[in-house]
């Protein structure tokens, strides 16, 4: 899988590609359908398949004050696009210059001249260009002038509602991991480097691997049954995690703190990906360390049961 920026020279091997175009944050069922259409179209014509995404998310550019909302990092999306059969990920750097690019110029200069796209696949509600002035109708009409065919796909439905990133975010903020997992086709996962904490977990018999939440959406604060993957080694782990501000300790500090069952290794400085499978209970403040450790033992037992 090749990753390339939209202002970088495109390798000749990728010109004439079919491009799946969208934000693709989360890479849920609807996104997968768009990318699958692009990959199948590309393969049928012997062309490369490119997935084009935006980073930062356009919403972050125009509303930097909003709380974190990302469902995936670029690294996660790159892996997911590769698994879906794409040959390359093209990242549109969403800055002032790109935001000011008229929709017609986006097609003529970026899709046609810079990328040399032969075809583009989007969702039917996709908009682009300055002031969101471009839609699928404009993409089709302008694209035709430059030899670019366009296809737009309708939403994937689930339980009578369209699958969307906002629906997944709402589920996670409610602690509904099962709905999020169904729409994503995998559990929501936070990837990061394990940092040193205050060692309080270790002192009470539950050493944790601390992760900053960064730009990720904050799911409902509470205790979760989780699995994890150590990226370098591929080792798989199971555990229970606190996601929140640790109200039993001062000062409050927002962290994802997974405790892994039957594990005694050193994860400091390593990159891991923690997937949340089940919400067990909200965060709570305990009157004593004994009360906290008793509850943690119960949480771990329940997490083991749910994770099988």
Molecular structure report:
The chain is of the alpha/beta class and 308 residues long. It contains 10 helices and 13 strands. The strands form 3 sheets. Strands 1-4-3-2-5-6 form a 6-stranded parallel sheet, sandwiched between helices. It has a 5-stranded antiparallel sheet with strand order 9-13-10-11-12. Strands 7-8 form a two-stranded antiparallel sheet. The longest helix is centred in the C-terminal third of the chain and has 19 residues, at 289-307.
Features:
five-stranded antiparallel sheet, 13 strands, 25% strand, six-stranded parallel sheet, single chain, alpha/beta
Gist?
The chain is elongated.
What is the overall number of helices? 10
What multimeric state do the chains show? single chain
* Average pLDDT figure: 95
Taking the sheet with the most strands, its summary is:
6 strands, parallel
Number of strands: 13
Distance between the termini: 34 Å
Strand order of the largest sheet: 1-4-3-2-5-6
Secondary-structure element pattern, one letter each: EEHEHHEHHEHEEEHHEHEEEEH
Radius of gyration based on Cα positions = 22 Å
**Poorly predicted regions:** none
Shape: elongated
Strand content is 15-25%
Helix content: 25-40%
Q: Structural class, judged by helices and strands? A: alpha/beta
């Amino acid at each position: 899988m090749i990753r390339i920026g939209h202002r970088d020279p495109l390798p000749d091997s990728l010109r004439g590609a079919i491009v799946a175009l969208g934000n693709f944050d989360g890479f849920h069922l609807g996104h997968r359908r768009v990318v699958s259409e692009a990959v199948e179209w590309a393969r049928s014509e012997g062309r490369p398949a490119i997935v084009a995404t935006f980073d930062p998310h356009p919403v972050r550019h125009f509303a930097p004050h909003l709380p974190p909302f990302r469902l995936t990092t670029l690294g996660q999306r790159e892996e997911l696009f590769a698994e879906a059969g794409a040959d390359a990920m093209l990242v549109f750097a969403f800055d002032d210059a790109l935001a000011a690019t008229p929709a017609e110029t986006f097609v003529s200069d970026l899709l046609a001249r810079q990328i040399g796209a032969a075809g583009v696949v989007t969702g039917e509600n996709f908009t682009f260009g300055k002031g969101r002035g471009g839609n699928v109708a404009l993409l089709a009409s302008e694209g035709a002038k430059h030899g670019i065919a366009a296809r737009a796909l309708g939403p994937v439905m689930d339980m009578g509602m369209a699958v969307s990133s906002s629906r997944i975010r709402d589920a996670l903020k409610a602690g509904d991991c099962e709905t999020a997992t169904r729409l994503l086709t995998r559990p929501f996962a936070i990837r990061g480097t394990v940092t040193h904490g205050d060692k309080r977990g270790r002192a009470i018999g539950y050493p944790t691997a601390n992760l900053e939440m960064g730009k990720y959406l904050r799911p409902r604060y509470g205790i979760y049954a989780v699995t994890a993957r150590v990226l370098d080694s591929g080792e798989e782990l199971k555990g229970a995690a606190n996601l929140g501000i640790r109200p039993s300790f001062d000062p409050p500090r927002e962290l994802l703190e997974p405790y892994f069952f039957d594990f005694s290794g050193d994860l400091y400085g390593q990159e891991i990906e923690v997937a949340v499978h089940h919400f067990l209970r909200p965060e709570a403040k305990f009157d004593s360390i004994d009360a906290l450790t008793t509850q943690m033992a119960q949480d771990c037992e329940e997490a083991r049961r749910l994770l099988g």
